[in-house]
Write a structure and sequence with these properties.
Blueprint: H1 3-6, E1 19-31, E2 34-47, E3 50-63, H2 67-77, H3 89-100
Antiparallel strand pairs: 1-2, 2-3
Length: 107
Amino acid sequence: QYLPLLRTERYAALGPIFSVAVERIEWRLIWEGSMVDITIDEGRVTTGDNSKPIHELEVELHSGGIEAVFAVARMLGDPVALRPMTESKADRGYQLARLSAPRSDAG
C-alpha cells in the first residue's frame, strides 16, 4: 500500500545516509545456568568519502539472569582492555553523516 507513495517524484531522491559493513562471529555461552550471546563485529561505517572503523564485542543475555552478562563481561575484560558503550552502529553512522554534510554559510 505504501509502494505507490514511494514511487512519487517527491521520494525519488531518497538514498542511504550511511552504510554499515561488518563481519560477525557469534557464540552462545552457558554461564551458571544462563545463556549469554557473545558477538564480535569488525568492519566500517561509511558515508560518502568518510568512514570509521567498527571493533565491537557485544555481550547480551539470551535467557536467565542478567548477572551472567556482567560476569562474562568481567571475565572477557581481564585480558583485554574493554570499555562499555551505549552508542549503536546507527548512532555512529548518523554522527558521521552530520560531520560530512556540507555546511551552510547562512546563519
